[in-house]
Amino acid sequence: MFHGSMVAMVTPMRADGEVDDAALARLIEFHVENGTDAIVAVGTTGESATVDFDEHCQLIKRFVKLVRGRVPLIAGTGANATAEAIRLTRCAMNAGADACLLVTPYYNKPTQEGLYRHFKAVAEAVAIPQIVYNVPGRTAVDMRPETTARLADITNIIGIKEALGAVERIEELVRRCGDRLTVYSGDDATGMASILAGGKGVISVTANIAPRLMHDMCAAALRGDRAQAEAFDARLAGLHSALFVESNPIPSKWALHEMGLIEDGIRLPLTPLSPSCHDTVRAAMRQAGVALSGDANA
Question: Residue ranges for the binding site for pyruvate?
């Protein structure tokens, strides 16, 4: 149902931290025009942790309205309280999202049985396609492949975004449940290898900055053209690293501001990119062929 380069899109904000509707519309057009295969709204990169429930729902509605069905819209609706995840997921379904992305509950560190019951409860409560999301580096819990394999038997759990950053984990998930569940990489640095190992795409931070190149890389990998995929990925490699020199989405938002696409707004406790990191991110952008607003050819 979903494949290729799926951008984990930032939520553009003004300097006062309020959502910038004009920039949101501009970014969505940027992705549609540059071949992004799906847009993920209000996930980790979209600063979901700093929006309240009502704002979260309103943002999903804005995304749906602006995308207008031109590419699939996947709404981030995860929460560490199962009841809240159900409410957010129901809001996304009612708004017209094509699917939801639900992160493993963070901070409270559930057991594997708790993870299974959490996702099962959301899936049974809301009849929308759902992609579960494993990112141990942020949540302090690793959903094991055997748990994912149990979830694959639930009809509307259609995929997993696996962000452990190990291709071996992707291979195991494809082997265990690839006929019942679509596997996506949630780690840009191993995204190409993950697709070549049987994954169907990348839910990508890098795609915020270089959407066309990320789309081309994923397309090449999906058709099994390793040489072409490697050539594209070599140009993206600097971004895969530089966009994490500080916590995501700090570098991505700074880069988009440098491209003239958004203001430099970000919400506390996140702060603007440290000046010591500016040259690193700029160099990675230029390696990927991204024009900065101050460049002569921009």
Answer: 45, 203
Residues 262 and 256 sit within 8 Å (Cβ to Cβ): yes
Q: Residue ranges of the domains in the chain? A: 4-225
Q: Which residues participate in catalysis according to the annotation?
A: 133, 161
68: left (phi over 0), alpha (psi -120 to 50) or beta: left
Q: What is the mean pLDDT of each run of 10 residues along the chain (298 residues)?
A: 95 96 98 98 96 97 98 98 98 98 97 98 98 97 98 98 97 96 98 98 98 98 98 98 98 98 97 98 97 66
The H or E element spanning position 32 is: helix 21-33
What is the pTM for the complete model shown?
A: 0.96
- State how far the alpha carbon of 126 is from the alpha carbons of 83, 88, 221, in Å: 12, 10, 33
Show binding-site residues.
Answer: 45, 203
Q: What is the pLDDT of residues 135-153, one digit of tens each?
A: 999 999 999 999 999 999 9
CATH topology of domain 4-225: TIM Barrel (3.20.20)
* 113 alpha-carbon distance from chain centroid: 25
